[in-house]
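Researcher: Following up on the earlier apo prediction. This time include the ligand. It's flavin mononucleotide, with the SMILES given after the sequence.
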Amino acid sequence: MKYSLAPMEGITGYTYRRAFESCFGPMDQYYTPFLSPNSARSFMKREQKEVEPAHNADLPVVPQLLTRNAEDFLWASERLAEYGYKEVNLNLGCPSGTVAAKGKGSGFLSFPEELDLFLEKVFRESPLPVSIKTRIGRNADEEFPRLLAIYRKYPISLLIVHPRIQKDFYKVPPRREPFRLAMQDSPFPVCYNGDIFCREDYEELMSEFPDLDMVMLGRGILVNPGLLRELRGGAPAAKAELREFHERLLDGYVEEFRGDRNLLYRMKELWTYFRYSFEEPERCRRLVRKAGNLAEYRAAVNEIFHMETVRPTGGFSFGK
Ligand SMILES: Cc1cc2nc3c(=O)[nH]c(=O)nc-3n(C[C@H](O)[C@H](O)[C@H](O)COP(=O)(O)O)c2cc1C
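Model: Understood. Below is the ligand-bound prediction.
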């Protein structure tokens, strides 16, 4: 089985990836949160930092692009090839209302003919192999067979399926039947993504899809960075390991960001998930929320790691 870390905007940037890999790796593949190439023909500062080769040295990283414009995609694909990346990923899943309203991410799924033309140009001209991360439709599951027929016209390096539609966001259970359709006689490798939070979730998935050989993990890792090791048959993360991971991540953000504001924003965002690693997530939330600067944040985290007990894994069902 191969495992990848899902792209998660605002969380799984290069600092997170490096902290994760050093504590709980190796992850087989990492995807960057989406970059939005546009006609300006330059990456934004944040995006440039994200794909800077030095920031991703020795990690298997695939940059992800969010656009409906083939020229913009190809421009970015060329830059990324120059940086030494081996693959680029297309985002056809972002459920955000503003993104979808512009016909990008899951919004692009509403325009199958335009999507087909886009893919035709991209697959003809991209210097890098292209993988796709897709939802099963914009408005209804029934859109998926048509989308799949379009995908199957192209030599996609990997199709990652998050079997929900746009309006599901990250709630309601992912659908198994459309995923089965994607697996059936697929001309390219297929990866499953959605709601794998513990070993039981994984085993249930594998019992339905014994031929599956790639799974993308998202919030399950944010909650419990030891999940990858557990899925590989290893021991759950001990509190000391979670602490070590947290410290490396925090040190990384101190280096990445000037000033406390961005850093606190990032760490608080992480705790919206990470708190479920502890017996009393609500208390963790309150403690972390109050911190107004780095010193207060460190004190809050000290308290959490002293007072809190790590939850046994297995019964967790975040988002379901
Ligand atoms: C905070 C957050 C940010 C996300 N950002 C992205 C993104 O940049 N690109 C993308 O394709 N998916 C993004 N996603 C979706 C995840 O990659 C993944 O498909 C989703 O969380 C379902 O997988 P999970 O149940 O394992 O978390 C994001 C999800 C979350 C929760």
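Model: The domain at 2-231 is CATH 3.20.20.70 (TIM Barrel).
Researcher: Noted. I'll compare it with the apo version next.
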